[in-house]
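Our consortium's second objective concerns turning raw sequence data into structural hypotheses that experimental partners can test. To show how far this objective has progressed, the report includes one record in full. It was chosen at random from the queue rather than selected for favorable results. The single chain below, 230 residues long, was entered without modification.
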Amino acid sequence: MNGVVNLSNGSLFFQRVSYEHQGRYLCSPFNIHSTGGSSQVMEVLVREPPLFSVKPKELYQQPRNTEVIMPCEGKGHPPPTVSWRSVLQNDVATLVTSTLLLVESTTPHAPTNVSVNTSAFAATVSWLPGYDGGHPQTYVLWYRLVGQGDSEWRTIRVYPDNAITLTIHNLQPESQYEFQVLSRNAFGDGLYSEIVRANTTKWTYLEGAYPTDAYGSTYIPTVNRGANII
């Protein structure tokens, strides 16, 4: 039998196991005088972990109302089963692959990873774009002051269209604000991002510097009662 060696100590060495070696074996020690009889039958079962023969692509991007086929095929022993996540498994091992289906001509997905950096009178909001639905998307930043009944939401259209950061001016010092980002395209508004809260910092006259507005001009701030100014 190919790939099988009888060692000097009587052991049977399989150099590279294949399906050819699967079966039942027994051994019988003997010498010039006699034999010790046969051992119990030993059954060798060859198992092969699953392997992908056909994997789905990492990304499928299709228009609405069209068909898409995501193939997932594999081989192994025993034959593997396939379930869609896509998981390929048998008794030996489990393999998992993933794919992403994006449908075109839809409203955009929500922006993600919203972060806020604040000073006393300003906040810089940054985010990552979600899927644009296959069409250019724009953003609207929503924000409001938290506390004392919560103020109404204010909105700012983000320019240029591809910008993913915006600085808001004329905020109140030592105050908490909520921020969220909305994306939209030719098919309408998408989903809002998660709401992120951030606190503006303290401001003191002793610093000798007044805040600036969106145009870079300094101004004397009007501070609501309740904000601590030194």
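The partners drew two points from this record. The chain has a mean pLDDT of 81. The longest strand covers residues 176-185. Both points have been shared with the crystallography group to help prioritize constructs.
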